[in-house]
Every structure is written in structure tokens, then in C-alpha cells.
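Review form for a predicted model. The reviewer records the input and the model, then writes brief findings.
Reviewer: anonymous (R2)
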Amino acid sequence: MTDNRTTDLSGRRILLTGGTTGIGRATLEALAAHGARILTFGRHRESLDEALAGVEGDVSGVVEDAATRDGIERVFAAVDERLGGIDMLVACAAVGAQPIHEMEDADWRYVIDANLTGYLACARAAILRMEEQGGGHLLFVGSISTEIKAAGESVYAATKAGVQAFAETLRKEVADKGIKVSIIQPGSVDSEMQECDAEEKRAAIAAGRMLPPEDVADAILFALTRSPTCDIVNLRIEPLIQKTA
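Model under review:
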């Protein structure tokens, strides 16, 4: 008997942005384990090759930058060529930032292009393709930084707040096209953005103060595998003891 309450990811054509490190890499492994056909990309060849070597299945990647218009265009050309279309977009690519007055002008603008403009550009390209096939699913990885507004995170929080507002508004604009939109908002996660070393990260995870990226990947899988008529609009996931300032 078919379970209509869930969506099978086997054979689904998924573009995963930023699948080379942290949450993205954990998600790459999880999606591949569920039989999805995946194209991912990152800025560095070494990290991409390492990530792809760690998974089995119909998985490929390209070296591109989500912050650039040309990069996004080349990514979707690869989507068309390698996947023959797109059923799901999972946007994870992001970079950290310092307070705006401690950054060079070009640097904070790059953060906005990578963390916000890149999400919008990927969403637009995905929607244009999903419209033609009658539906799809867009999932964006945000952050609880939009809620806690911790000192030092002004630029980063601004980009993630933009992603949240975009996602929650966009879903109202594309639902009638059969396109679902979800946002996952993690708390503190073991990633390259964390300034502490590997041992400190392990201790923080053991103490319930930091999430392993696999926990966020599980949340992403949950959102993607609900029934076709169930949309996980906003899912907030935190370590047991979340730092809020």
C-alpha cells in the first residue's frame, strides 16, 4: 500500500547549494542515502571533490560561486544538462560576517550576494523550471540569528532575516503552481563559521550547546518528505542549551 503521507526522495532531481561543508555536506550524504539525484556546488575544488568522494549514488558537482550571476547561470545550465530538470532546491550556501563597520565595503556586499541574492537567484531559476512541470519544492536554510540578534552578527542576521521574509512571502505566491516553500532555522551548528577549534566543537555538542550538522540534515529531510499537500513553512531547530546573546 502506498503511503500518501510522505514523499519518496528516490530519483528526485535536487540542486543542493553549498553541499561541500557543514550542513550542506551532511545534507548531501543524507539525500544520497535516500536515492535522490543530486547536483551540488561550492567555491573550492578540493572541498567539492572531498564531499563527492564521501557519497555513493547519482551525485555530481561543479565549482561555482552562489554570489555571482554568471555562477548561478552556469549551475542551472548544469542542472538542465545533468538532471534534465529540477524537483527540489535545497539552498545551504552561506558565509559568515563581522559587524559592518569592521568589514571592507566589498566584503559585506559579498556576504549579501552569497547569503541573500544567491538564494533569490536560485529560487527564481528553479521556479521557472518547476512551473513548466507542474510543481516542486524550495527549501532554504536560514538561522535563528534573525530572532536572537546577537552582537557581532548584524550583517549575517540581516541576510538571514531577508531569506526568512522572502521564503514566507514567496510560498503565498507560488502555492497555486504546486510549489512548496520551506525554511529551516538552525541554532548553533558545528560548521566552518564557528571560530572555536574541533575539540571545542566536540565538547559543545556533547554538552548540548551546539548541533552536529547531521541534526539539521535530518530536519531538512523531514521537511522534504512530507506529503505533497503538507508544507513545513518554518522549522526552528536548536541545541538543548542555545546561546541567545
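Findings: The domain at 13-237 is CATH 3.40.50.720 (Rossmann fold).
Further findings: The mean pLDDT is 93.
Recommendation: see findings above.
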